[in-house]
């Protein structure tokens, strides 16, 4: 039995806001509830509602910039920078800039929409 798994067909999460989400590992792609790893591209002027996730989220910026509002503090990361946002922290993710933002997101435990606790 192999002691590894290569992901060649990540799960493309359906979105209606122009954001690309390719989940390589996690609940949707391989049923792993311990961790999710996704490649994402947020289009210019994209944003999500505020949320208070029940998971830690790590983000590494590959290209562009991404804005985080964390407990009312604005943080902007650029390519080559990363952040860890602890679970149960109120946060909003956005790309208010004119260029797309490409990044990797890792959630522990794995992302679920229910555990994101997005505000209406």
What do these coordinates show?
There is one protein chain. With 120 residues, the chain is mostly beta strands. Helix content is 7%, strand content 45%. It contains two helices and ten strands. The protein has helices at 27-30, 113-116, and strands at residues 11-12, 20-25, 36-42, 46-47, 56-63, 65-70, 73-78, 82-85, 91-95, 101-108. A six-stranded antiparallel beta sheet has the order 1-2-3-10-5-8. Strand 6 (65-70) and strand 7 (73-78) form a beta hairpin. The longest helix is centred in the first third of the chain and has 4 residues, at 27-30. The protein is globular, with a radius of gyration of 14 Å. The model has no long low-confidence stretch (mean pLDDT 97).
- In terms of quaternary structure, what is this? single chain
Radius of gyration: 14 Å
Residue stretches low in confidence (pLDDT < 50, at least 5 long) are none
Percent in strands: over 45%
Number of strands: 10
In this structure, how is the largest beta sheet organized? 6 strands, antiparallel
> Helix-strand pattern, N to C?
EEHEEEEEEEEH
Strand order of the largest sheet: 1-2-3-10-5-8
Summarize this structure briefly.
By secondary structure, this protein is mainly beta. The chain has 2 helices and 10 strands.
What labels describe this entry?
120 residues, 2 helices, 10 strands
